[in-house]
Amino acid sequence: MKAQFESISPVGSNSFNAFRQEKKEFDYPYHYHPEYELTYITSSDGVRYVGNEFQRFTANDLVLLGPNLPHCWKNGERQKTKASALVLQWREDMLGKDWLETKELFAIKRLHKLAGRGIQFSEAVACEVREDFEKLVSLESFDSLMVFLSILDKLSRTTDFSPICKDDFTHQTTGDNERINQVYNFVKQNYTRKITLEEAADVVCMTEESFSRFFSKVMKKKFFSFLNEYRVIVACKLLIESDMPIAQVCYNAGYETIPFFYRQFKKYKNCSPQFYRSQFRLTGDFSIPVL
Questions:
Q1: Is the dihedral of CA 86, 92, 94, 95 positive or negative?
Q2: pLDDT tens across 58-69, in order?
Q3: What integer pLDDT is reported at residue 95 of this predicted model?
Q4: What does the alpha-carbon distance between residue 53 and residue 169 come to, in Å, rounded to a whole number?
Q5: Less crowded by CB within 10 Å, the N or C end of the chain?
Q6: pLDDT tens sequence across 130-187
Q7: What domains does the chain contain, in order, with CATH numbers?
Q8: Weakest-pLDDT range from 168-172, 255-259, 280-284
Q9: Which of 155, 140, 142 is nearest to 19 (CA)?
C-alpha cells in the first residue's frame, strides 16, 4: 500500500493539534507525517493499518504512532454508526529541542521512543484518559497544554499496552509502494474467491517470481500469509456481528475448506472460531489472549 505524505499545519500558534473527527466513514488514505499522533476511536469499527500490520478496531481503540509511521483506519462495508475519533498531533520539538531531556519527563521520553513501532493501549487505559481527551479538544492556551501533558503522563506510566509493528518494519517511500496499494485494493475486492499468485502478479504487471520477492521485501511477509491474515480478520468480524454458522463464516471469508480455515484461524488467533465467538460474547474482548 502506498503511503502518501500528509502535511500538517499547527492550528494558529498552538504547539500541538487537538481535534475531533466525525464522518460517515473514515476515508483517509494510507499516509504518514513527521508528527506523533494519538488517536482515540469513539465510534465505528473496521480495520486499522499501521506499517505492515493490520488489526480489527472498534470503539475505544487508542493508538499512539511515531513520526513517519504509515497508517489509516478503514471502516467495514456495512458500517452502521458514524465514524468518530479524537486526535492529537505534535512534533517532537513542540516545546523546544530538549524539552524531553529533563528528569521529570523521562517516562514521556520513553513513550515517544516506543511510539516508533506504534502502540495500542488497552480499553481500560483508553477509558481512563477519555474524559481528558474530550476536554482537551475544547480548551485553549495554557489549560490545553496542561491537559495534553497530563494525558501523556498517564500513558507513559502504564504497562497495559502492546506494540503494533514488528522490529524490522521500515517505511518504504519509493514508487514501488504504488504497486502494493494496487494489491491491497485487489485483495479487498476479491478475497471472497480463490486468488492465484498469477492474478496478484498481473495486477502490478510482474512475473510471479518477481512479485513474490517484491511483496515479501516490502511487506515483510509472503503474499498468501497476508491474504490469509486478511481473511481471518473478515471471519472475526462475521463471528462477532452475526450468528452465522461457522461453515458459512469460513466460505464468506474466502476459504474453500473448513479444515484449512480452522488451521489459519488457530495460527493468527491462537484459538478456534467457536472459542473466539464465545469468549467475545462472554467478555466483550475481541483480542482474545494467547492460550
A1: positive
A2: 999 999 999 888
A3: 85
A4: 9
A5: C
A6: 999 999 988 877 889 999 999 999 999 999 999 998 765 655 544 556 677 788 889 9
A7: 4-163 (2.60.120.280), 177-283 (1.10.10.60)
A8: 168-172
A9: 140
Which cell numbers hold the place of 242?
452475526
Q: Which region holds residue 107: left if phi is over 0, alpha if psi is between -120 and 50, else beta? A: alpha
HSE-up of 62 (CA within 13 Å, CB side)?
A: 18
Q: What is d(CA 56, CA 232) in angstroms, rounded to the nearest whole number?
A: 10
Q: Are 59 and 42 in contact (CB under 8 A)?
A: yes
- Is the confidence at residue 10, as pLDDT, over 90? no
Rounded Cα gap, residues 121 and 161, in angstroms = 4
d(CA 91, CA 290): 36
- The packing angle between helices 223-241 and 273-283, to 10°, is 50
- pLDDT at 112 exceeding the cut of 70: yes
* CB distance 230 to 191 below 8 Å: yes
What nine digits make up the cell of 154? 498517564
Q: Which residues have CB under 8 Å from 155's CB, separation 6+? A: 38, 64, 111, 121, 125, 129, 161
User: What is the pTM assigned to this prediction?
Assistant: 0.64
Residue 61 confidence (pLDDT):
96
CA dihedral sign, ordered 214, 219, 225, 231: negative
Q: What's the grid cell of residue 2?
A: 502506498
SS3 19: strand
What 3-state DSSP class applies to 232? helix
The three three-digit cell numbers of residue 178, written as one number: 504504488
